[in-house]
Amino acid sequence: MIELDIIRTVEAREGLAGLPDQSVDCVLTSPPYWACRDYGVAPAQWEDGSSSALGLEPDFEKYLDHLIEIFNGIKRVLKDEGTLWVNLGDVYASGTRARWRGPLSHHLPNTATGTLDTANPPEKRKRAHGLEFHRFPDKTLCMIPERFALRMLQKGWILRNRIAWVKPNFLPASVGDRFACSWEYLFLFSKSERYFFDIDAVRVPHSAPERAGAGWESRTHSPRPVVAGTRLPPRPGEPDTLHRPGKNPGDCWSIPTRGTQFPHPAIFPEALCERPISAGCPVGGIVLDPFAGSGTACVVAKRLGRRYLGFEVNPIFADYARQRLQNTPTAAPIPAPPSSPSDVPQTTSDREAA
Ligand SMILES: C[S@@+](CC[C@H](N)C(=O)[O-])C[C@H]1O[C@@H](n2cnc3c(N)ncnc32)[C@H](O)[C@@H]1O
């Protein structure tokens, strides 16, 4: 029996070890990025014999090994028809240390005192951890998210989307010899070719030309059988190919970041969690975030009528997540699910060739 609707103060692998096989419907998470921040987490012991806090490994290959160790555990607890959503950022090589490609690191709460650690600035802490590498020439973008995705494919995961999370309010950068970084990856993985995906829950309005019947979707999509109840019947004279409830939102999402603030330096915007949970987890299903931080994925899961479970190793962040969840209203009663099995929105494979 899993204890649900809680944030556990626990290391991700330990939390995962306590879950039965195939027990969660959806995992939505953002692990610490490599060489970015010190979250005040004690070094962990890894299968390869090394010891480091995740993200503070001296070498990004080791970081990827450790991520894969954790995601092997996630694969075990995720249902075969489940979905996995992972947000990951990149880093530029810079001679003796890695440099974060987004906002600078911020002062973090000291876990012992619960106060801001302003005496020990982030750059000093990075050096104290010996975070150095010489693999690439200075200024090289290391392509950590792509490397992670390729490693996941080697482990049998199916990569379904590389969503670009575009930040319209990205921070101005002082660099003059490249463009500022304004987007990040959100990967969608599945374990199986057939998995739960409710595209109708996340459709967006058609543009005016599409509504007029001349748009991309109506020109290029041939009529296909659709799951009953997910599409309105065509009006007289309207092409049968236009989804009147709206179109597929595509894989480029413009969502502003939240201000980076105490007590957590890397809070997801809630809007980034809404589509993954609405499309990738059935109502009443279980959403897990093994790197819960301030608990945003769990907050959105609760708001959207899903069960949730969060693991967060830093007790200050875990407490903050619990407070946020206490202040989050439970979803309004959700209409009963459709009774006929053919009414259940199920898999992309039903409607999409690849
Ligand atoms: C990128 S942040 C996640 C932020 C979260 N998405 C939010 O909206 O607040 C990553 C979190 O993972 C936590 N963390 C780091 N290593 C961990 C581990 N081994 N197990 C569990 N949590 C860990 C950090 O303390 C940090 O809060």
Could you characterize what this model shows?
This protein has 354 residues and is of the alpha/beta class. The chain has one domain (6-209, 221-353): Rossmann fold. The chain is built from 10 helices and 12 strands. It has helices at 12-17, 60-77, 122-128, 144-154, 208-211, 216-220, 270-280, 296-303, 315-326, 348-351, and strands at residues 6-9, 24-29, 44-45, 51-52, 78-88, 91-94, 97-100, 158-166, 183-190, 252-254, 286-289, 307-312. The protein has an 8-stranded mixed β-sheet, sandwiched between helices. It has a two-stranded antiparallel ribbon with strand order 3-4. α2 (60-77) packs across α4 (144-154) and α7 packs across α8 (296-303). The structure holds S-adenosylmethionine.
* Helicity level: 10-25%
Low-confidence region ranges: 98-116, 118-134, 214-232, 337-352
CATH fold naming: Rossmann fold
* CATH C-level label: Alpha Beta
* Mean pLDDT across residues: 81
Rg estimate, integer Å? 21 Å
Element order: H for helix, E for strand: EHEEEHEEEHHEEHHEHEHEHH
What CATH architecture do you see?
3-Layer(aba) Sandwich
The total count of helices amounts to 10
Strand order within the widest beta sheet = 1-12-11-2-5-9-8-10
Through-space gap between termini: 36 Å
What's the number of structural domains?
Answer: 1
The CATH superfamily is known as Vaccinia Virus protein VP39
Outline of the structure:
This protein has one domain (6-209, 221-353): Vaccinia Virus protein VP39 (Rossmann fold, 3-Layer(aba) Sandwich). 24% of the residues lie in helices and 18% in strands. It has 10 helices and 12 strands.
